[in-house]
# Entry
Amino acid sequence: MDILKNRNIYLWVSLVFFVFSVFLLIFWKLNLWIDMTWGIQMEYSYNSEINIDKITSELNKEKEVYLENWKQVINNIGVYWITWEKTVAVVVWFQNNTDEIKLNELKNNFKNKVFETIKAQDESTLETRYVNIWKSFGDYIKNTAFITLAISIIAITFYVTFAFSWVVSWVSIISFAFITIITLFHDVVIASWLYIFTSMYLPEFQIDTFFITALLTILGYSINDTIVVFDRIRSNLKKYAGKTWKDGRNLYEIINMSVTETMTRSVYTSLTVIFVLTTIMIFWPETISGFILVMIFGTIVGTYSSIYIASPILYIVNKDKKLTVYKKIEVNPEDKIVV
# Structure
């Protein structure tokens, strides 16, 4: 299989997706969950049937009354069922246009109004959960997320540099680390864009702490797949580089051979992971559905990048290097070290 033949097409497609994804992440209004902002979440148990559409309509009318300095305080309201339970959840997002003490007072007032609205339909309604996210905590979560992702990428880069520090001399160690950073950014950014694009049509998929956890997991899966391909390339370089006749291969042939040898393993492993993740998303609680969806996108993008992005870039960076026969250094145990 000649992967490198259409390398420019693969790289340009990925570049377009990457630039578009970065643009979307910077300028698009993100569908943030309350742990990334400063909202409240309430859950209520009930016995008889209640009309969730009517509750949503009444609460949306009520939010127009909540103003601070002539500006609307409540940004959005979400009302939904808890799967397999007679429980309704209400999530309210607030604007950042007032101080935290005043905002907390408004939250309590609106919480009481929500309870009255649901109780009007079912007298047996009970509040079973109340979560109040303060602005300072939401900012802390977002800042920590960026720092954690940055530290993870740096740590993985150092690991790759160390792992390939004994690679054949005519292939740069820096190229492996550099390409690793590119593929990691590629996977995380495009997987995030796919998730955000999905949330535009399915609002239940929101950006929360599970989303950040999924991105960190994607980093680990992506680097694993990339290193498998790189390790096979390194092995084949030692075996075929610089030789003549039927035992010899140039860099183009070696990379194509290595990718072909690992492609089946990568694709089958990814399909297995996707099958398991899809099953979990269908049958497990909705609270982790966003985490699972990001993982599915990350698995697909990570598999693609390890085959169609990492390998072509490795060839482009090293294609002008002259390959020589690999010579293993023989160490004579009888040699004495003079100090």
